[in-house]
């Protein structure tokens, strides 16, 4: 369900607001406002924004120039391989070449990846036919003079420039260049020689040629991280591990965003015999591995945050720790499941909770609120009853919790210290589909509701008594043919 803020931006974009159109495209690209990532929709709105700017006046003002600059930054993020079927692809094609000609590094990478990456061979065949049909309509003189093979050669030049640069795309460009070069076949043969025959010479050659998995394998082998059984049989071999060389190769693999390499580096920096021993650097490496999705690293980070929870400054103690432990739990780390039970409360069966009977009646009332002519405050109280049952809240928590702020990705945070300072916050795990649905429905109902609209605790108690009495007496005994119920 789209958020109110997203709908507001969408409305402005439809009215021709250039900034709103770009914000909408950004939302479709980055997933902000809980928007599904849809590059095709992003491209359509960027095209509308572009023509809105260029049609405003013949001369580009400073304001228009700023808007064009931000538009160019967004357009360079569009993955061309995902928008080929879009009706706006022609617009993106021309603009990407224009940006590449102006030395935009992201644009050069997108074009090179689309045109010369062997993984997109089928798409390139379709693109060749499209290029042949659309060539005459291109506004770029450079492209009009080239055939498709010439365009691919130009994209290869961009790729070589990226491989030689110090940009964020350097490693991706190098990997793609390796695939395009004849030595790629030799690289595959060398890797097969290592995997099948255990040839260390082949492993070294693969690592030197830049293969990320070879750099990782070599670093692990030098550190003896992958040879635990061998170490148990012959502990003396551990002293032969060159930790400095291992760290060198693992750092190269880590630069390619390999999570296992970051995790292995974290272990090396914790080894007393390593001359570069550093607990702080080890923690940094483990954190980076966790950010990249390494399950054990995520558990370590969560456990570490849980141990230090008393010293951390966070609104609710243990919330950060619970997130990382939950991530590790999602990937099957058994220790994470055990720790998660200590951090988060679990209430997966609403039928066993104290509010179940009232919540069932409240759900019925919500499903027929128009029929029962429920006013807004009564609807909100019914949602509170449903939420209270899903997460076994106390009566005070039911009445006082900020419903629109309850949900986090993995849990709900029930914090009513603003009214009752002595009641500690609770973290409750979100485990079922019905829990998420109830939070979504309640969040929609409470969106835009001012904190004082429901009144103070005394007023909420009075309304709670009225609503629950009405639910028990009127909804519980209601017959299908009963006439509309008027609420006093």
Description:
The chain is mainly alpha-helical and 488 residues long. Helices cover 63% and strands 2% of the residues. The chain is built from 26 helices and two strands. The protein starts with a helix and ends in a 13-residue tail after the last helix. Mean pLDDT is 84; it is low at 227-240 and 479-488.
Globular, elongated, flat, extended or rod-shaped: what is the shape?
flat
Question: Helical percent range?
Answer: 55-70%
Span between termini = 33 Å
Q: Give the count of helical stretches.
A: 26
* Unreliable spans: 227-240, 479-488
Please identify the structural class as seen in this structure. Answer: mainly alpha
Kindly state the number of beta strands.
Answer: 2
- Percent of sequence in beta strands: under 5%
Q: Give the helices and strands as they follow along the chain.
A: HHHHHHHHHHHHHHHHHHHHHHHHEEHH
Strand order in the largest sheet: 1-2
Mean pLDDT: 84
- The whole-angstrom Rg is 30 Å
Largest sheet: 2 strands, antiparallel
